[in-house]
C-alpha cells in the first residue's frame, strides 16, 4: 500500500528572486553576445533562458488545510502540507487534496430492521482525509468511495438492530441514538481505513417506518402507550385503595363487613381508574338500606 510521506520543498519566494536574477543575467548575456557577434554565445544564452523559463513552472501554492501530492513520471514522490508559495522540480505532477473536515448526508435508504420491519433511514457522516497517498492511489475516487461505503455500512447496521426495543433486546435504533452513532461510526471507519479517510462523527438524521406500515405501527405504539399508562394507573389506584382501607381501620373510623368492603373497593377503583370525573351520589339513608 502507498502510505503518505512528507516532503520538504524550497520556498517559492526565494526561488522567484533567484530565477529573476538568473533571467536578468541571461538577458544581459544575450545582448552582450549580439554586440560581440557571437552566434554560439547567443545560442547558449537563449537555451539557458529557455531552461530558466521552464524552472518557473515549478512554482505552486499550498493553501491552508490542503496538501499537494507530488508525482515524478507516475511514481509517488511525497506530499507537501506546509502552506504558502513553494517550488519543486518542474517535472513533478502536483495534485491538490483537501484535508478539511467534510460532511454529507446519505440518501434515504429503505431497508428491513432486525425484526424484518421495513424502515427508512439516513445518516450524516463527518470525515476528512488523513493519508493523501492512500486516498489518491488506493481507490479510484475517494469521495465517491466514502459515500458508497457509508451507505453500505448504514444499510448493514440497520439490519443488525430493531427499530424499537423488543423483548430480550436492549439496544434499538430509536431508543439508543448515542450507542447507534458509535456503532455506525466504527462500521464506516472499518470500511474507509484503506482509503486514507478518518470518520469524525456519524449520526442518524432520519428514521421512520416505511409508509406502507407506518399507520399500523403507529396504532401499535399508541396501544402500547395506553397499556403502559393503564398499568401504572391501576397500580397506583390499588395502592391508594389499600392505604385508604388501612387508614380507616387503624383510626377506627368505620367497621366494614366483607360485602361493604368489596363495594367500597369497587367504587374507589372506578373513581380512580375512570377516564372522566366521577359524579358522586349522596346517600342520606342508612348504609345498609
Topology:
Layout: E1 10-11, H1 12-35, H2 39-55, E2 59-62, E3 66-72, E4 75-80, E5 84-87, E6 92-98, E7 102-105, E8 109-112, E9 118-129, H3 132-137, H4 142-158, H5 177-192, E10 197-209, H6 211-250, H7 258-273
Antiparallel strand pairs: 1-5, 2-5, 3-4, 3-6, 7-9, 8-9, 9-10
Helix pairs in contact: 1-2, 4-5, 6-7
Low-confidence stretches: none
Order of helices and strands: EHHEEEEEEEEHHHEHH
Number of strands: 10
CATH topology call of the largest domain: Tetrahydropterin Synthase, Chain A
How many helix segments?
Answer: 7
Structural features:
single chain; 289 residues; Tetrahydropterin Synthase, Chain A; 3 domains; 3-stranded antiparallel β-sheet
Structural summary, described in words:
- The chain has 289 residues and is of the alpha+beta class.
- It has 3 domains: 10-97, no CATH class; 102-209, 2-Layer Sandwich (Tetrahydropterin Synthase, Chain A), CATH 3.30.479; 222-273, no CATH class.
- It is built from 7 helices and 10 strands.
- The chain has helices spanning 12-35, 39-55, 132-137, 142-158, 177-192, 211-250, 258-273, and strands spanning 10-11, 59-62, 66-72, 75-80, 84-87, 92-98, 102-105, 109-112, 118-129, 197-209.
- Strands 7, 8, 9 and 10 form a 4-stranded antiparallel sheet that branches. A 3-stranded antiparallel sheet has the order 1-5-2.
- A hairpin with a 2-residue loop joins strand 3 and strand 4 (75-80).
- Helix 1 (12-35) packs antiparallel against helix 2 (39-55), helix 4 packs across helix 5 and helix 6 (211-250) packs antiparallel against helix 7.
- The radius of gyration is 39 Å and the shape is rod-shaped.
- It starts with 9 loop residues before the first strand and ends in a 16-residue tail after the last helix.
- The model has no long low-confidence stretch (mean pLDDT 82).
Amino acid at each position: 500500500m502507498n502510505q503518505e510521506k512528507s516532503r520538504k520543498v524550497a520556498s517559492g519566494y526565494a526561488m522567484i528572486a533567484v530565477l529573476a536574477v538568473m533571467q536578468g543575467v541571461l538577458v544581459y548575456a544575450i545582448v552582450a553576445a549580439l554586440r560581440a557577434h557571437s552566434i554560439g554565445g547567443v545560442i547558449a544564452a537563449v537555451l539557458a533562458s529557455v531552461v530558466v523559463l521552464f524552472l518557473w513552472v515549478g512554482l505552486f501554492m499550498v493553501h491552508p488545510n490542503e496538501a499537494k501530492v507530488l508525482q515524478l513520471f507516475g511514481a509517488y514522490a511525497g506530499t507537501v502540507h506546509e502552506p504558502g508559495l513553494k517550488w519543486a522540480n518542474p517535472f513533478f505532477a502536483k495534485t491538490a487534496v483537501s484535508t478539511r473536515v467534510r460532511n454529507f448526508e446519505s440518501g434515504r435508504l429503505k431497508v428491513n430492521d432486525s425484526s424484518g420491519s421495513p424502515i427508512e433511514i439516513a445518516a450524516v457522516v463527518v470525515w476528512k482525509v488523513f493519508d493523501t497517498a492512500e486516498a489518491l492511489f488506493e481507490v479510484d475516487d475517494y469521495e465517491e468511495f466514502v459515500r458508497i461505503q457509508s451507505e453500505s455500512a448504514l444499510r448493514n447496521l440497520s439490519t443488525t438492530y430493531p427499530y424499537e426495543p423488543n423483548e430480550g433486546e436492549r439496544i434499538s435504533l430509536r431508543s439508543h441514538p448515542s450507542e447507534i452513532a458509535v456503532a455506525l461510526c466504527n462500521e464506516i471507519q472499518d470500511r474507509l481505513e484503506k482509503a486514507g479517510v478518518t470518520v469524525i462523527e456519524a449520526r442518524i438524521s432520519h428514521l421512520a417506518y416505511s409508509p406502507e406500515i407506518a399507520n399500523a405501527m403507529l396504532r401499535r405504539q399508541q396501544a402500547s402507550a395506553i397499556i403502559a399508562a393503564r398499568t401504572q394507573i391501576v397500580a397506583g389506584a390499588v395502592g391508594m385503595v389499600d392505604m385508604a382501607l388501612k387508614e380507616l381501620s387503624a383510626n377506627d373510623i368505620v367497621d366494614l363487613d366483607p360485602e361493604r368492603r368489596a363495594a367500597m373497593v369497587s367504587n374507589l377503583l372506578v373513581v380512580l381508574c375512570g377516564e372522566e370525573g366521577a359524579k358522586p351520589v349522596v346517600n342520606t339513608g342508612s348504609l345498609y338500606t
